[in-house]
């Protein structure tokens, strides 16, 4: 086993090849479109569930 310690290679500061144009077009502050669709479905499903439960309570009280 040698007594010499090999120095770690310093990280390269240059851009990765092939990632130049894709990295420039991606915007971090804009959420993905699927998030809006998912939230819309959850909100609609919650309202439908609450309306159905309210209808059941109304039916139960009128009997």
TrEMBL record:
Entry keywords, A to Z: Membrane, Transmembrane, Transmembrane helix
Region (Disordered): 1-26
Family annotation (InterPro entries): DUF6126 (IPR046129)
Transmembrane segments: 39-60
Any single Pfam family the record assigns to this protein: DUF6126
Protein name listed in UniProt: DUF6126 family protein
Organism from which the protein derives: Streptomyces caniferus
Lineage: Bacteria, Bacillati, Actinomycetota, Actinomycetes, Kitasatosporales
